[in-house]
Amino acid sequence: MSSPAIEIEKLSKEYPYGFLHLKKKRSLEDLSMQVQRGEVFGFLGPNGAGKSTTIKLLMRLIFPTSGTARILGKPIEDVSMHQNIGYLPEQPYFYDYLTAAELLDYFARIHGLKAPERRERVERMLKKVGLDTAKKIQLRKYSKGMLQRAGLAQAILHDPEVVVLDEPMSGLDPLGRREVRDIILELKKGGRTVLFSTHILSDAEMLCDRVGVIVGGKLRGVGTPGEMVGIQVQGMEILFEWHGAQPFPLVEKATKTGERYRVQLPEVEVYPALDELKAAGARILSVVQVKPTLEDFFMNLVDADRAQANAVEVSAP
Amino acid sequence: MRNVWVVATNTFREAVRDRVLYNLVFFALLMMGAAILVGQISIGIQQSVIVSLGLTAISVIGIFIAVFIGVGLVSKEMDKRTLYAVLAKPVQRWQFLLGKYGGLVMTLAVNTAAMAVGLYVALWAVKHPLEKSDWYVLVAVYLIWLKLALIVALAMLFSCFTTPFLAILFTVGIYIAGLYAEDLRTMQAMDLTPTTMKFLRGISYTLPNFENFNVMGAVAHARGVPAALVWQDTGYALLYAAIVLLGSAVIFARRNLK
Q1: One domain, residues A196 and A239
Q2: Which residue of A109, A182, B123, B152 has the lowest C-beta tally within 10 Å?
């Protein structure tokens, strides 16, 4: 049986601070998790939660205080493993005196690709991320979104087995975000493993096989987006249009947006409500289940964390 | 070594695109001015003046580039986070460091060689044809380049563990102290205790002896440079730079990036 794509065991990171660096701030605490081969894994958390710290530890840009990690079965200290990893840093910044084509050529040379293959790959990647028309412009003239695209291109240039993207949607317009989503799905289709961090929950819900939620340096849960938010139905939502003059109880209970009314009810009250609407001559547009979203789950965790922090602060002498 | 070469050529390209070689224009103007002036006011000592002025300019301009760009080689990459994507590739940190070093030393070689050409043009303008002794200037230029390579290694070492400002101060400090390393060793005449003498001698051997690379006086007066000195200086610069780079690599390998 092949090993997981990414295995993290009790990874912790402390940063020294203050005079003579005597104090220590823990930004990651005993993180253990696995990302299976071929899955898209979303790493969720608010700003400062420890997402980027974890990714930087995996990319050996910083070193752990304790714990270990393996990628494709090899310890992260093994540099040769990076031949099979693609990485997009958060808010990437590249050599601005290079053009996008030169930058990709530079990275392709580091990966040991021969000249004809380099040319072909660079062209293909630039086209894929929509920079083929701007390939001869120096990166210092690029917008944030264009730099993000160049960063994505260098991350997948060498066709890596594992792709790690730190906030890949950051700085992109809706079109750019959609293109990144398509690239992630294409990577998954090609059997690649993708780990990406984000605080945009809709992206995670749309793309991820599983997500891990990290808050305050601690992993708070790992599972499918469905598992994370639970499967219980909270109620039903009815959307309808009504142009009558005499209000009835359901209309008074509903929220009006433009010409439409929206009302949320317990499941058992749905059929009587539909009868009531029919009798009043309303046009029913939709009846859908109401489930908690990943955002609800996420906000509950953050609120619980803050409440705990406040409680500690209050009880402190 | 492929990765070292790739990083080095990119560093060279960076220096060219950031217009580092524009200093050559200043050097050319200086040499032209000197040639015109020397031709008018001095007879018989043109060679000495032109050679002294040219070699001093090559050295000073080179030191500026070696210190300021040398310190920025790693610190700028860390500050701008441009090295994140590079170090996430199959590149060892020491390979990156050596590549950056090699790129700047290569830039300095091109820069120094171009200035040497300018110096010869100025020399030819004040006295032609050139004589055999004029080719000693090339040896002096080579030794200046060795000195600059050593300064870059020191600048890089300091930039691996301290701020750019302090790294510049330390590099310049070590350079100035290194110019007097010989004097520290031979301070016999002064009233010093044996312990102090030993300490100063120890420091004098630890400091890079930059005066070793200075043959300007001899060359300006058309005197040759012994081949043994050239070999000795080459070995010394290689060994010293290797030790300093090893220290940089050890520090950089453990450095947490921002």
Answers
A1: no
A2: A182
Domain encompassing residue A214: 6-224
A152 and A265 co-located in one domain: no
Total number of domains constituting chain A: 2
- A136 shares a domain with A37: yes
B69 chain-A contacts, CB cut-off 8 A = none
Asked if residues B73 and B238 have their Cβ atoms less than 8 Å apart, the reply is no
Residue A47, judged by CB atoms within 10 A of its CB (0-12, 13-18, 19+), counts as exposed
Confidence category of residue A272, pLDDT binned at 50, 70, 90: very high
Dist CA B212 CA B228 (whole Å)? 12
B10·A106 Cβ contact <8 A: yes
CB-nearest partner of B80 from A88, A93, A107: A93
CB pairs under 8 A between A and B: 70
Residue of B nearest to A112 (CA): B2
Within an 8 Å CB–CB cutoff, is residue A62 touching chain B?
yes
| Residue in the block written with tokens 């060679």 | B47
Shared domain check, A138 and A271: no
- pLDDT per position as a tens digit, A112-151: 999 999 999 999 999 988 888 888 899 999 888 888 899 9
Q: Are residues A253 and A125 in the same domain?
A: no
Q: Give the pLDDT confidence of B9-51 residue by residue, as tens digits.
A: 999 999 888 887 788 778 877 877 877 777 677 666 777 888 8
Say how far apart CA A256 and CA A248 lie, in whole Å. Answer: 14
Domain ranges in chain B are 2-253
Contacts B10 to A, Cβ<8 Å: 95, 98, 106
> Worst-scoring range by mean pLDDT, A131-140, B22-31, B107-116, B132-141?
B22-31
